[in-house]
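Exercise: predict the fold of this chain.
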Amino acid sequence: MAAPSEGDLLKLEQGRAAFNREQYFEAHELWEEAWRALDGAERFQAQGLIQIAAGLHHLQQGRPRPAVGLLRKGLEKVSQGTFAVHVDLQVEALANDVARLIADLEGPGMKLAPLQLPKL
């Protein structure tokens, strides 16, 4: 596959902005559009971002079990290497925040609110 276009890079950045506004479904959709144009490690890590956004969307909808499953899958992907696409994605910090969130969700007496949600 060819390098991502400016439009694909814009989708990644727009997805980041939606994610930081806690609009996780929108972030998922934008990242999925860009994901189609990526390959190799970038595609794999973008899939991780998509899974994290989907997990956080489930959490917003009050579904912690599917949320944790998707957060784990996404965390595994984004934790493998650095995201080489040239956009300002703080993936290492996101991975740390998602790991903490999973621990909070699986801890004793877990409550859905208030949880500190990750930013990217």
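Check your answer against the key: The CA atoms of residues 59 and 65 lie 8 Å apart.
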